[in-house]
Write a structure and sequence with these properties.
This protein is mainly alpha-helical and about 140 residues long. About 60% of the residues lie in helices and about 10% in strands.
Length: about 140
């Protein structure tokens, strides 16, 4: 009944779990942050930038499968959130490097833990998916 009360009133705070400590007026923004940092491309970019600043092409090479458009969008969003810096050098040819900010470095450990967990358990999850897909 408590969950239903909360669902019926979007301004209500959660009664238990980690959301209970978050004021109701902040929940929308917290969900936006989780959506941003929880997407696959953001996590992979944060993970590879831990080794140090990378040029755009090197960053694209280190994140297999990411398109140029998605990489541009991802680093722009991470920059807007203060997780990544973009440094342009006045050289010929021009050079741009991306690096983690202190806030981004703080998030790195969490991101790499999630990536490692996914890699360690992919076979088990694949089996569950296969089993549920074939079960009527």
């Amino acid at each position: 009944m408590c969950a239903m009360d909360t669902a019926d009133r979007p301004d209500a705070a959660a009664r238990r779990g980690p959301c209970a400590a978050i004021p109701a007026d902040q929940m929308g923004f917290v969900r936006q942050i989780l959506d941003r940092i929880g997407d696959k491309w953001s996590m992979l970019v944060i993970a590879v930038l831990d080794a140090g600043p990378l040029r755009y092409t090197d960053l694209q090479r280190e994140v297999p499968g990411i398109s140029q458009r998605m990489l541009t969008l991802t680093v722009r969003q991470l920059q807007q959130d203060g997780l990544v810096t973009r440094t342009a050098y006045a050289e010929v040819p021009p050079r741009v490097e991306y690096a983690l900010t202190p806030l981004g470095r703080n998030l790195h450990h969490i991101v790499t833990s999630l990536i490692t967990w996914a890699a360690d358990h992919h076979s088990e999850i694949r089996e569950h998916r296969t089993r549920t897909a074939t079960t009527p």
